[in-house]
Specification:
eight-stranded mixed beta sheet; single chain; Four Helix Bundle (Hemerythrin (Met), subunit A); 21 helices; about 450 residues; 434 Repressor (Amino-terminal Domain); about 10% strand; Rossmann fold
Length: about 450
């Protein structure tokens, strides 16, 4: 779960647990539940006007005859709250409005200093590059010391061209960058502009001139999620001067309270397009309101979990593995490969929190990630032959593996026993169609 949503998710989970199982609910039940939700939203630093509208509309709809006399009133209430949260977040995902690749699309990045514009520009460039576009990064932050150097380093890391000049004339740089893009076959120009510690006239005047020159298809505010509902005021100021088309929230993985995400769309009318979820250049995700709403309400996010798995596991490799399992060919090398792929998907807690019903049920302190590290070290200390055939692992080999991995013989024995049990379970599962069907049904399959 995103840390910033953890507290509010726990509250929603408690409310729904109390009300969902009731065969009948009263107006008092609804009022008590909505009061808890209201307090959770205020604690999350959600805009006060947004909270009031949310509370009033939820109570009005939940006290309707359809809910109170419903066969499953608790579930009806949960559905109402989900719809209201989804409306706050923006109903559905909004895509970048880019032109075809035979025409240059310009994206203007703006925001306050420290919000993560420069890193965000590189993250978006990498994403667009992976989608088959040819991005160009443009260094128009000519105020912050080392901003151009930072963008240059990032551009080199992701192997994307950068346009920069030794000047203080940002509109001139933007204009020349478009000429450079046309000559070099770039179809998407991402312009990184200067920010200040607060909104001021000089900054706005410069960005207005840059916008006139580059005529962007997207004018995007990059905002720090840790600013809470004060992001709304910043967004309104930028929108009045520059007519925003959307917002990107950075530091979504922080311990911020979530007020920005739940306030922005409702107050400004501008959709959240992407969210920064970590420090790596790949930690950049499209903002799916329905998925975030599901995670806030403790309903999990199976779609994102599947997508993460698809990014990590090749379909062809999965089919090969399935055949090996069925024939009892699953080896310690295969186990190592799976451990390393799971690591690429992110933290174990984040993965588990995407599973329906798991949100708020996991204490991070109880997740021992060192077990996986030790298992990986033990298997890496084996020879290729030993990984492919665990039956040759006699006492002397196990001692050598324990020494090489910095573990004990007992831990090596434990891993091998666990491997043998897992291997047997996987083989049974691969042959049991009924069990597979139950599993698919549990996770939303057909």
């Amino acid at each position: 779960m995103f840390i910033m949503l953890e507290k509010i998710t726990n509250t929603f989970s408690d409310v729904f647990r109390n009300i969902a199982g009731k065969s009948t609910i009263s107006e008092k039940n609804i009022e008590d539940a909505v009061e808890q939700i209201k307090n959770a939203l205020l604690e999350a630093d959600v805009n006060l006007r947004v909270v009031r509208r949310f509370v009033n509309s939820t109570i009005e709809e939940a006290k309707g005859e359809k809910v109170l006399r419903s066969v499953a009133p608790g579930q009806q209430f949960v559905k109402i709250v989900y719809d209201k949260i989804l409306a706050l977040l923006g109903d559905k995902k909004t895509d970048l409005q880019l032109k075809g690749q035979d025409t240059i699309s310009t994206i203007l990045f703006l925001g306050l200093q420290g919000a993560g514009k420069t890193t965000g520009a590189a993250k978006l460039a990498l994403r667009l590059k992976n989608e088959g576009r040819k991005p160009l990064l443009v260094a128009c932050d000519l105020v912050r010391p080392a901003a151009i150097e930072q963008l240059s380093v990032l551009a080199e890391k992701i192997d994307v061209p950068i346009y920069k000049e030794d000047t203080k004339d940002a509109p001139k740089v933007a204009k020349n960058a478009l000429t450079f893009a046309a000559k070099n076959g770039c179809d998407t120009v991402i312009v990184d502009t200067a920010g200040r510690l607060q909104v001021d006239e000089d900054m706005m005047a410069e960005i207005v001139q840059v916008k006139k020159v580059c005529n962007p298809v997207e004018t995007i505010l990059v905002a720090d999620a840790m600013m809470g509902q004060s992001v709304v005021d910043v967004a309104k100021a930028f929108d009045e001067a520059l007519s925003l088309t959307g917002v990107i929230l950075t530091k979504f993985d922080s311990d911020a309270r979530g007020g920005a995400a739940l306030s922005l769309k409702s107050v400004t009318g501008k959709p959240i397009l992407f969210m920064g979820t970590g420090e790596k250049l790949t930690d950049w995700e499209p903002f799916f309101p329905e998925r975030i709403a599901g995670r806030i309400l403790g309903m999990g996010d199976v779609v994102s979990l599947v997508e993460k798995a698809q990014e990590t596991f090749e379909e062809e490799e999965a089919e090969k593995l399935q055949k090996k399992i069925a024939k009892e060919g699953f080896s310690l090398q295969d186990m190592l490969d799976q451990l390393q792929r799971v690591k690429k998907m992110g933290s174990i807690q984040n993965i588990l929190e995407m599973v329906p019903g798991m949100a708020g049920q996991i204490d991070e302190s109880q997740i021992d990630t060192s077990v996986m590290k030790r298992q990986e070290a033990i298997i890496l200390s084996m020879t290729k032959k030993e990984r492919e055939n665990h039956l040759i692992l006699g006492p002397s080999r196990r001692k050598r593996i324990a020494r090489g991995s910095g573990t004990s013989v007992g831990e090596v024995n434990k891993l091998i026993k666990q491997f043998e049990k897992t291997r047997l379970m996987m083989r049974k599962f691969s042959k049991n169609k009924g069990l597979q069907a139950q599993f698919m049904q549990q996770f939303g399959g057909k």
